[in-house]
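Subject: Protein record for review, amino acid sequence with C-alpha cells
Why sent: The fold of this protein is of interest and is recorded here as C-alpha cells.
Enclosed: The protein record, placed directly beneath this head.
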Amino acid sequence: MQRGSIKKHGKWWVLKYREDVLKNGVRARKDAYKKLALFDRLHQTKESVQALADVALASVNVADRPALSADSVQSFLEMFLTKREGGRGHALRPKTVASYTDMFRIAKPFLPQIELRRVRTPDINQIMRSVAADDEDGRRAQTVYANLKNFLSSAFRYAVGHGLIESNPVRDAIIPEGEDSDTYAYSLAETHKIMRAVKKPMAKAAIMVATFTGLRMSEIKGLRWEDYDGKVLNVRRGVVDGIVGDTKTKTSKAPVPVVKTLQKILAKHLKSNSGDGYIFHGETSEPVRFENLARRDIEPALTGKKVEWHGLHAFRRGLASVLHDKGVDTLVIKHILRQSVKGVAEEHYIKPSLERMRAALELVEKDYLKLRKH
C-alpha cells in the first residue's frame, strides 16, 4: 500500500507516487505527481495535506485498478486508425477510415503533448478551438467540426472499451461554428435546365437516376446491369474512392421502382455502353469516378446557364422535397430513399410497397414531363 511522498514545489504541496501504466501495450511502473494544495495559512506542514494525499492515493491502492495508457495522444490516434475498429467494436467502413484519416490530419498539429490518460474535456475543447482558429478565411464547413468530434469520440470510446482510459472526454466537448455545408436541393425546373445543357449520355443517365430514384452517389456508382430488370433497380452495393463495398446501411440495400422516363434514358445510355458489369463504368470497366465526370462533362456544360452544380446528392434532396410537396406520406418517402424508420409499427409491420413507391415517383415524373413540353 502506497503512502507516497509529499514535497513543497514552488507554491504547491505536491504528492509523488508510483502507478501502473500501459506503454505500447506493455504494463510498467511510473512516477506520477499530483498537486494537493497551495502553501498557505491552512497548509503549512506536510501533516496538513496528508488527508488530501490519502484521498488521492485511495484509487491507486485499489488492487484491481486497471493500468491506464501512458501513450501520447498522437500515437494512440495513429494506432486507432491502423486498427480500423470503431468505438463500438465494429470494423470501420473504408469511407469512414478515409474521413477519420482526414480529421486526424487536420487535428494533428493541435494535439496536446500529454499522455492519453491525462486528456480531459477542456483539452478536447482546445483542439476544436485551435482547428477553428486555423481556418482564417472561415470557409471550413460546420460538418468538418462535427466530423472531427465524431472521429475523436469514436477513438476515445475505443480507448474506454479497451481499458486505456476511464471515461470519454469528447462526449461533452464543444463544436465550433463553421460555414453551413452544402444542403442544396435541385428543383425539377433546375434539373430540366441541367438535362438540356448536358450532352453526354452517361452524365444524363446518372442525373436522371439520381432525380427519379434518390440513390446516393456511392450507390449509383455500384449499380450493375444485372441489378436492373427494366422496371426496378436493386441497390446491392456502394463504391467509395474506387473501393466496392456494402451499402451505407442495411436499409439502403433495397429495390427502387424505375419510372418510364428513366427507363428511356437508361435505354439510350445502354446504346453507348457495353451492357456488362457496371452501368456507369469507364474504359477500364471499373466504376466511373463521378467527380471526374462532373468536372469534365457537367460543370463546363452549365457555364452561363444560370444553374450551378451542387453534386448528385442535391438531386436526392430535391426528390425528397418534391415528394413532400406533393403530399406523399413520410414513410413512403423514407422507403423510396431507403432510410431507416423508427417505431415498432413502421419497422416491423409497415413494409415497403413498390406499388406505392412507384405511384409517388410517377407524380414527380408527371411534373417533370410538363416542364419538357415548354
In short: DSSP finds 14 helices and eight strands in the chain. The two ends are 88 Å apart (CA to CA).
